[in-house]
Task: structure prediction
Amino acid sequence: MSTTPLAGSFDFRPLDPLKDAELLHGWVTHPKAAFWMMQDARLEDVERAYLEIAADPHHHALLGLCDGEPAFLMERYDPARRELAGLYEPEPGDVGMHFLVAPTDTPVHGFTRAVITAVMAHLFDDPATRRVVVEPDVRNKAVHALNEAVGFVPEREMDKPEKRALLSFCTRERFERAVAA
Result:
């Protein structure tokens, strides 16, 4: 668990694809989640997508809690086997990550940055994690700024089947420097 004065206490729990599908459906179909590419998903589509992740040994979904309430989604995956398989040269200790903050009518300044910081800290809590890999849409300028704030360095643009992506990496050392600044 981590605590930030702006946001409260963060914790993570495994996502339950059936129990959490309705909540997630509202998040992934919200206009602010356009880059999640599930805008037209039905509830059954969300259930199916997260049941597939739950059954995949190389991809995990966690629900992020703020003060005990669902507030964000985090996915951790093996980029050598999912998402980026065959698209870059993986290194030992690479971990792929996606995150999505729940939409709200009352945004809190700094909350999303606190979330990505908590997500990165959670990933680096695993001593086997040497580097976090992300591949956001090149048009998603807001997430590029957040990634930079926690230590990501863009390597290159790349074509994925569903999007033009910005491949970026963050080592443990860069993350620790970024959050200490």
